[in-house]
Specification:
By secondary structure, this protein is an all-alpha fold. The protein has a single domain (2-415), classed as Sodium:dicarboxylate symporter (Proton glutamate symport protein). The protein has helices at 2-28, 40-83, 86-118, 144-150, 156-161, 165-182, 187-208, 211-226, 229-233, 235-260, 263-270, 272-281, 284-298, 302-315, 318-334, 341-354, 364-375, 383-387, 390-415. Helix 3 packs parallel to helix 15 and helix 10 (235-260) runs parallel beside helix 19. It starts with a helix and ends in a 23-residue tail after the last helix.
């Protein structure tokens, strides 16, 4: 099923690009139209198309969000209970956070180095806008103490309703540790939680059957509204960023290879479907259930995967991390601003701290960037310049986030000496024989 679904998602991706280009061509006469040359009435017609197409993708992503909270709760609690003791939980947690910090530093530093070497915004020649001009992006809460407090749920119902992953993780850890402490008295709950895991994975299977259609609608909408010309406008920026993502993938692959050897190639084959799904929908959440299943097939115990992945959604978004330094310095280059190396290092450290726990915020990368830009006197209005292509960039960083979290889970499992042999590859069932030999 996984291989067929990957194939169907790829078909949906290709057909979506073709359908979107056809719609854009029908209204504008070109697939390479510059956005600022499209008449207002044509923009309105394309936006109407986008409204209907967006409904399909929105429904799919809502169904994914419907799954996330109970799936994270059930898998994480089940994993903690099956670890057996709090010492194992603390050991796994320390290794996980240690890996996340290292991966974050590598991702942010790589983005900073590449944007300085490639200089994608150099020669932009944009005049500095008035300081009061903004990009219209809501600022995150700036009170440090309130940010820390908001990581802890005052109501798990509210946390689940808002899909605030970090709050769900914290409650699940308390719940799982308490079940371990209670022992046999919690056995009925343990059986119920294990059953809930299986039920939620079955629900996931039902929802994922609609993913090719959602991918088709998402790609059709993006290309229909923007055309392929928007890519040409920022081709150097997009190309430079995707080159950076490719290098980051190589770094992650090498890290996986150093830990698990040639099996790293098998891991990347197993996670190709969640990568493609995250890329197509520009949503890391959409890939969570399939990533969990892929890691289970690879041999990562559920107790490890169900602990590392939810934490990764708050602390280990490697693609988003790299984008933050890359995009911030790109905008500074467009305005001809020189940011000293020491200031860039300070920016890197600031981003590393402010980005944690922001995964629940829509377009979290842009929100964090807008907050940091003001600190370094980079005009926030510059974000408007990249908003038009952010969808294409978000696709790449969402796919990379999946890779980073999958590698993290495998590394932690290996460090724990708890990495099993992978399941054999799927084989299509043979056709039923026409006769039997007795």
């Amino acid at each position: 099923m996984a291989k067929r679904l990957t194939f169907y998602i790829m078909i949906g991706l290709i057909l979506g690009i073709l359908a979107g280009a056809a719609i854009h061509f029908f209204y504008t006469g070109s697939v390479l139209t510059e956005p600022n040359t499209i008449p207002d009435d044509v923009k309105a017609s394309l936006a109407e198309w986008g409204k209907y197409l967006g409904l399909v993708t929105d429904i799919f992503l809502r169904l994914i969000k419907m799954i996330i909270a109970p799936l994270i709760f059930a898998t994480l609690v089940s994993g903690i209970v099956h670890m057996g003791d709090t010492a194992a939980l603390g050991r796994v947690g320390a290794k996980t956070i240690g890996w996340f910090i290292g991966a974050t530093v590598v991702s942010l530093t790589l983005g900073m180095i590449l944007v300085n070497i490639l200089q994608p915004g150099a020669g932009g020649g944009f005049e500095l806008p008035p300081p009061d001009v903004t990009a219209g992006i809501a600022k995150p809460e700036s009170d440090f103490f309130k940010i820390i407090a908001e990581m802890f749920p005052k109501s798990i119902i509210e946390g689940m309703a808002n899909n605030t992953i970090l709050q769900i993780v914290i409650f699940s850890v308390f719940f799982g540790v308490a079940m371990t402490a209670v022992g046999e008295k919690a056995e009925p709950i343990t059986k119920g939680i294990d059953a809930l895991v299986h039920v939620m994975l079955q629900v996931t299977d039902y929802v994922m059957r609609a993913s090719p259609l959602a991918v088709f609608a998402a790609m059709t909408k993006v290309v229909a509204i923007n055309g392929l010309g928007i890519i040409g406008t920022f081709i150097k920026f997009i190309g430079s960023f995707y080159l950076g993502l490719a290098i980051l993938w190589i770094v992650l692959f090498i890290a996986a290879f150093l830990v698990v050897g040639p099996r790293a190639g098998t891991l990347f084959r197993y996670i190709r479907e969640p990568i493609l799904l995250a890329f197509s929908t520009a949503s890391s959440e959409a890939a969570y259930p399939r990533t969990l299943e892929a890691l289970d097939r690879f041999g990562v115990p559920p107790k490890i995967a169900s602990f590392v992945l939810p934490l990764g959604y708050s602390f280990n978004l490697d693609g988003s991390m790299m984008y933050m330094t890359f995009a911030t310095l790109f905008i500074a280059q467009l305005y001809g601003m020189h940011i000293p190396v020491e200031a860039q290092i300070t920016m890197l450290l600031t981003l590393m701290l402010t980005s944690k726990g922001m995964a629940a915020v829509p377009r979290a990368s842009l929100v964090v960037i807008s907050a940091v830009m003001a600190q370094f006197h980079i005009p926030e209005a510059g974000l408007v310049l990249i908003l038009a292509v952010d969808q294409f960039l978000d696709m790449g960083r969402s796919g990379t986030n999946v890779v980073g979290n999958a590698v993290a889970a495998v590394v932690v499992a290996k460090w724990e000496g708890d990495l099993d042999a992978p399941e054999p590859p799927e084989i299509e069932p043979p056709h039923a024989p026409t006769s039997h030999v007795h």
